[in-house]
Amino acid sequence: MLGIGSHIVSALIVSVPLKFKTHLVDGRDYLLFRITPADLAKAKIDHERVFNGLAWVDPDTMKIVKLKGRALPEGNQRFPMFETMRASIDKTHFFPVSTFADDLLEFPGFNIRMRMRVIYFEFKKFTSDVKISDDDDVPIDSPE
Fold first, then answer.
1. In 3-state terms, what secondary structure has residue 18?
2. Phi/psi of residue 67, nearest 5 degrees
3. Per the domain annotation, does 85 fall within a domain?
4. Domain for residue 43, yes or no?
5. What is the tens place of the pLDDT at every residue in 98-135?
6. Strand locations in the chain, DSSP E?
7. Number of compact structural domains in the chain
8. CB-CB contact of 74 with 89 (8 Å)
9. What's the CA angle centered on 124, arms 122 and 127, to 5 degrees?
10. CA-CA distance, 73 to 45, in Å (whole number)?
11. Distance from C-alpha of 87 to C-alpha of 91, rounded to nearest angstrom
12. How far is C-alpha 1 from the chain's CA centre?
């Protein structure tokens, strides 16, 4: 629905755009969605990570252009609030182009400041050569 993998979508409740209005990012209006885990307790039991935060969606393409939030559940680990910008790479697909976080991770008895900046670049189309053959085509002495 929002351009993210179906395995993620099944674990989320996606609300309607906040206040039914758009939000300005880099001079353009985008739909703003709040994304929350459908069942955080189940995610914790299943040792799954889920996203909790906001998604800015292009109203024309329905592609996510920005995410801001954090991974849950925390348990013994802590995850920073991060912001990921996405852009059209080939006029069809939107990929992350940058991720930034600057957050104080609070552990029992101590805190750690985590600052990170990730830049994604040189996207390339993955290709490979595949040969499908019957078992009769494999020489008897070759490993399988």
1. helix
2. -125, 140
3. yes
4. yes
5. 999 999 999 999 999 999 999 998 887 777 676 666 66
6. 12-14, 22-25, 28-37, 50-57, 64-72, 82-88, 94-107, 110-119
7. 1
8. no
9. 160
10. 10
11. 9
12. 14
Q: Name every residue whose Cβ is closer than 8 Å to that of residue 103 and which is 6 or more positions away in sequence.
A: 80, 81, 82, 113, 114, 115
The rounded Cα 30 to chain-centroid distance in angstroms is 18
**pTM tops 0.85, yes or no:** no
Tokens of 91: 């006029």
Residue 109 lies inside a defined structural domain of this protein? yes
In tens, the pLDDT along 37-70 reads 888 888 888 888 888 999 888 888 888 899 999 9
- 1 domain residue, yes or no: no
Residues in Cβ contact with 98 at an 8 Å cutoff, skipping those fewer than 6 apart? 84, 85, 117, 118, 119, 120
Gyration radius (Cα) of the chain, Å:
20
HEC sequence for 91-121: CCCEEEEEEEEEEEEEECCEEEEEEEEEECC
11 is in which domain, residue-wise? 6-137
- What is d(CA 16, CA 80) in angstroms, rounded to the nearest whole number? 25
